[in-house]
Amino acid sequence: LKEENASLRSKINKLQIFTETQADKMRKLERKLEENKIKEEKEAQDLEAMVQHVEQNLQLMTKRAVKAENNATKLKQENALLQVQLKNYKTENEALRSGQSASLAVVKQNADVALQNLLTVITNSRSSIKQLLSGAESLQLVADLLKSIDRISETSEDGQ
Prior knowledge:
There is one protein chain. By secondary structure, the protein is an all-alpha fold. Helix content is 95%, strand content 0%. It has helices at residues 2-97, 104-159. The longest helix has 96 residues, at 2-97. The mean pLDDT is 86.
């Protein structure tokens, strides 16, 4: 009976040691789980902040693109008007050459004014086109960022 009692005590001690080991493992796993939850929450908050920042940039780029398009339209209208003026000046120039109008100096001056106006419109048009292209490149960058965010979120979902 003493031997059986000693054997049972030995088994109880082994079971207590095993239970303590399992409890330690469980506590470690619970801590690790909590750390992972905190890490995932921080990553989600960072990702949300990044998405908001990208959305703000996208809105800003859209406004710039609309402004550039409006400016380009306005310059096209101005260009058309100046081309009509240039045509009128050419007609007047033709009339002067045939002797029906004032001196050649006035025609030359009108042509010079028309040329200056046309060069100004060309310069302004180039600037607006550059702004429009810059806005388009910025929108492309934002689109690429949004694609990257989708890939990041897909990767984190697959990793779970």
